[in-house]
Predict the 3D structure of the following.
Amino acid sequence: VQSLEELMERYVEGSPQAFSELYRKVSPNLMGYLLRLTRDRGRAEDLLQVTFSKVHRARESYLRGAPVLPWLFAIARRTFLDERRAARSRAEDLSTDGTLPEPKPEPEAVSNDVADAIERAVDALPEAYREAIQLTKMSGLSIAEAATVLGATETAVKLRVHRGYNLLRKDLERFSRSS
Amino acid sequence: MSEEDPLDDLPWPKPAEPSAGISDSIRRECTHALGHKQCGRAHRRAALSLLFPTVAIGVFTFLAILRGDPDETLRSALYGVAGWVLVLVIVLAVGLAFPPGRRPARALRIAAALAIPIVFLLYITTTAAAHDSFASFSQGAPAHHALRCGLTCLMLGAIVSGGVLFLWRGTDPLTPTVSGALAGLTGGLGSALALGVACPSHEAWHVGVSHGLVVVAMVGFGALVGRRLLSP
């Protein structure tokens, strides 16, 4: 079984099979991560495509030995942040009749399923805690890998995850009492 | 995560598969015209990065020799250059010679990018041969010379930093700003050392403003440009 780093190196050297294997291994985690960032499947797929497009263009810049998972997640995160910034700068776009467009209503949470409750509780967390939990619990990165992606120390990420857990626990206790 | 993780038993969302259409499209794009390339190595690029300031220092030393500067002045300037080039080698070895994700802690690299220009500034101003007042530095011929020298140093710094940044383009999605600042430091320090050898003035205000501040400016320039250029 080849590591992600070995697959990346073979991909850089021109192996399409290595890319397919790399894609098979990392795309579900990346897609899940982008889906939770955007909460929109279409946008998440667009961002996934842009992310891999950047990876393809930058493959020659990949330095041997760099851990691939944090490398890919950092590119995906940057892609999301750039897209969000661009979307905000487009927010002043007027509709055809010259009025400001109506904001789209937030989808209502109707399900009482525990998994949905977790998703909602994570969404409600402060951004720093949410990102730390999304990367570790939901995308399967280690604390060290998440720290690398977020540009923080391992201790800081552990602290964010811990504080996020405490908030999540309170939220989920409320959910279990109400249901 | 630790075994006693209190939320481990929760049904965390599973990874999500992208749709088949998107996956096919990505596979097509990313396997199209794959040429044979070699993976870059961080330590080789770090060694190449050293080439830019070394060439700049070499050229300006040659100019100083051509101009016939006194041997003693040139020799003492080159001793200083040798010491700071050693610092530069350590900065490159610690800050950039490992692949992203395996580099030392970000805080340490930020500390290096911030502290070294300040230490350099203090060094060149305290070891300057002459200490005039600010009033005499800021007018007449000294002011013109400082402006000319500062602009030359700034341009040389931008060229050297630009070369180093270009060498590292697209290599660091994790800490592009910090890596950019270190690339800027390499260029700025190279440029200040090169000008330091060739410049006839050894007055504290002159070397501080026209040479030392350029290093600070190049660290900022590198951080700004690196943020975009070093991220894939």
